[in-house]
Amino acid sequence: MSLTFDRYLAQVLPETPEADKGLNVGCGHDVWPGWVNTDVADLPGVDVVCALGEDKLPFADGHFDVIVARDVLEHVDLIPALAELHRVLSPGGRLIVSTVHFTSRNLWIDPTHRRGFSLRTLDMFVAGGKRSYYFDFAFSAVEDVTLQMNDGDGPGRWLLWHRLAEPVINRSRLIQDVYEATFLARLFPGGNVLAVLRR
Question: 87, 30, 31, 32: which is closest to 58 by C-alpha?
């Protein structure tokens, strides 16, 4: 069975944060009770309307213990968006991300997508990394990176070879690197990059 975001979230976040200590950024219609839900659109249940990457988030520094950014980062100006998420995340807090992989057909379907992500893209924002000097903020670690092979409700969920390849690719960072650097990424295109960054 292919990994879903809900199953991934249950693995990396076994306990719900205290009320108002979790931020569901770019929530759309997926509003979570007990969390602060933000989106660029004024939809039912959205607590705060703001444009991530363009607006300053109206929260104090270090306010949130957990931030979930599901299918958001591919739509925004990445560096200012991550800087703001880093700012409002508490020391030791976790940012949980789901974003489109660069081989995914979904990257090209949505005209509002600005970029696709590699399994190594978020490494650039970690202290001590090869390019951490590019930015005036840094996360302490990328705790997990997983390639989700299916593409949600699209036809990819029926592809048997995706379900077989996913656990093999995710065995280690080395295998993930080989996958992305070779023809394998084109032969078995990914769906989403799932990741956990620690503040």
Answer: 87
- Strand ranges of the sheet holding 141-148, from the earlier edge strand across to the other edge: 48-49, 36-39, 22-25, 64-70, 89-100, 192-198, 141-148
pLDDT higher than 90, residue 71:
yes
Question: Domain map of the chain by residue range?
Answer: 5-198
**Size of the chain in residues:** 199
Cβ atoms of 162 and 149 closer than 8 Å: yes
pLDDT above 70 (res 167): yes
Are 188 and 162 a contacting pair, CB within 8 Å?
Answer: yes
- Confidence category of residue 161, pLDDT binned at 50, 70, 90: confident
Angle, helices 173-181/160-169, rounded to nearest 10 degrees:
130
Q: Is 3.40.50.150 the CATH classification of the domain at 5-198?
A: yes
Are the beta carbons of 28 and 22 closer than 8 angstroms? no
CB 138 within 8 A of CB 127: yes
* Tens digit of each residue's pLDDT (9 = 90 or more) over 79-100: 999 999 999 999 999 999 999 9
Tell me the whole-structure pTM to 2 decimals: 0.92
